[in-house]
Specification:
The protein contains 9 helices and no strands. The chain is mainly alpha-helical. The protein has 2 domains: 74 residues, Tetratricopeptide repeat domain (Serine Threonine Protein Phosphatase 5, Tetratricopeptide repeat), CATH 1.25.40; 71 residues, Serine Threonine Protein Phosphatase 5, Tetratricopeptide repeat (Alpha Horseshoe). The longest helix is centred in the first third of the chain and has 18 residues. The radius of gyration is 17 Å and the shape is elongated. The N and C termini lie far apart (44 Å). 40% of the residues are buried.
Length: 164
């Protein structure tokens, strides 16, 4: 059962999550910045700030917001996975892979973490490992769009059977 503090943190970000669902990213940023001013210890506010910043293309700021969320809540799996993707897109493939592997150590078999690890290895040119994690991701029966994307990636990889 969540603590009162945790429940208050969630309640404080409700409006911003609705704005994010409505793709009102700039409005969500305003609301989240206000939440953080009132309570700089709210990890969910930093996480959703990262989401909004990512959506408006501010990747460095998104990275920093995800890191802030993880400083406050090191077990926040979503922040860790999103940080991995953001680092990969910023060209920090080593950092991206480190975060993905940490996410998997927190939640073995988690489909989002498997996906992040697969893409992290792919970005590093480590096709054998990328294939392993992306195939494991497909075994989790992800949504159709994600599965189709990953099948396309796997089809484009050189055959690695026998090289493992």
């Amino acid at each position: 059962m969540p603590s009162d503090k945790d429940a208050a943190h969630w309640e404080a970000v409700e409006e911003s999550t609705e704005l994010l669902h409505e793709e009102e990213f700039h409005k969500a940023l305003e609301v989240l910045r206000d939440v953080i001013k009132k309570d700089p210890q709210n990890p969910y506010a930093y996480y959703f700030l990262g989401v909004a910043l990512y959506e408006v293309g501010e990747l460095e700021a998104a990275r920093d917001a995800y890191r802030a969320a993880l400083t406050l809540a090191p077990q926040h799996l979503g922040a860790r996975v999103h940080l991995s993707h953001t680092l990969r897109e910023l060209g920090d493939t080593r950092g991206a892979l480190k975060e993905a592997i940490e996410a998997l150590s927190q939640a073995p078999g988690d489909n989002d973490a498997l996906y992040a690890a697969g893409l992290g290895y792919l970005a590093r040119g480590e096709n054998v490992a990328a294939r392993k994690y992306l195939e494991a991701f497909l075994e989790t029966r992800p949504e159709f769009e994600s599965a189709t994307e990953v099948r396309g990636i796997l089809a484009s990889l050189p055959e690695t059977r026998g090289l493992e």
